[in-house]
Amino acid sequence: MEDFSGFLCLFTFLCVLNFLSGVEIVNVESEVTKECYGTHVGFGMSGNQDDHYESLRRRFKDCTHVEGNLEITHVDKAINSSYDISFLSSIKVVTGYVLLGLLEVQTIPLINLRLIRADSTYNIMGEEYGLVVALTSEAGNDPKRVGLRELQLPSLLEISKGKVFFAQNPHLCYIDTIDWGSIVPDNEGPVKYGELAYSENCEKKCDTECEVDGVNRCWGESRFMCQTVRSSHCHSSCPGRCYDSYILGCCHPECAIGCYGPSDSDCEMCKYFQFGDRCVPSCPANARRLGQECIMP
Ligand SMILES: *[C@@H]1O[C@H](CO)[C@@H](O)[C@H](O)[C@H]1NC(C)=O
Question: Name one GO cellular component term (predicted).
């Protein structure tokens, strides 16, 4: 009886609150997942630049989980100054590779991208890449060609497969301050620099807030662009990351980014899917998948 009256009281209270404030009480989902599908065309483009830009915008606007590759190419602000790729800022996970090329934009605002899983990689001359940034302006002094200055990836903590490639980015700054070894597990040279990989004349430095152990690492000028460096120095018998490099504190192989303990429920983020509080390689047969979540019917 007591429980029941307590329920009524709560119910009444909510009703009064609802009546007074005049707003509906709704379930607020803190993290809304929106899934979208990537592409597999490389530097290809069909139709004209306007159609191509519009189709990129429609495909990725509000998307948080890209199933497949994120290919952002042929966006040239010198052709049409109203091209705006800020829609990229909603993306948190890409399951394939990320290809950024043939662009004429000043920044790539992938500010919430945490994980590039690179289930499929981009192949350049026999080498597999999870992230490729190339051809982001012509060298020269044409004032309309501003060129890519900042690759804004402050949330990026892991590229699970493949290396990173840069070429022909004559105005790009800051990427040489990044500790790529902490992002790319492949420790035999995580990054490859082709010709004009980045600008040699960057005058601006990272914000002083980015300094860790006397080294400044950042993705751009602002203090929100500091690199968060995760330790990559694990015991060699750890399959992935570790939570303590002094004891043999290996993360579970189902973890991405990092963990707080050894089990598949201690992951900071799941590599593949989350089922309850565990990270799993695939969802149970009767579950629906949304982004990286398994949802039971
Ligand atoms: C420039 O791009 C915008 C956005 O896609 C489009 O609406 C507009 O028609 C384009 N302008 C020209 C001159 O192509």
Answer: membrane
pTM, two decimals, is: 0.87
Residue 33 CA to ligand 1 center (angstroms) comes to: 30
Contact assessment for residue 134 and residue 161, using Cβ atoms and an 8 Å cutoff: no
Q: How many A from CA of 82 to the centre of ligand 1?
A: 7
Question: Is residue 3 very low, low, confident or very high in pLDDT (cuts 50, 70, 90)?
Answer: very low
**Rounded CA gap, 162 and 97, in Å?**
9
Closest by CA to 94, choosing from 54, 136, 37, is 37
Give the residue, out of 54, 80, 81, 104, with the most ligand 1 atoms within 8 A of its beta carbon, to mutate for a pocket test.
80
According to the model, what pLDDT value does residue 18 have?
38
Q: Is 32:63 a contact under the CB 8 Å cutoff?
A: no
Ligand 1, closest atom to CA 81? Answer: 1
- The DSSP H or E segment spanning 51 is helix 49-60
Least Cα distance to 177 among 126, 137, 145, 211 occurs for 211
Tell which one of 50, 56, 74 to mutate to probe ligand 1, the residue whose CB is within 8 A of the most ligand atoms. 50
| CA 148 to ligand 1 center in whole angstroms | 21
Q: Is the dihedral of CA 266, 255, 242, 131 positive or negative?
A: negative
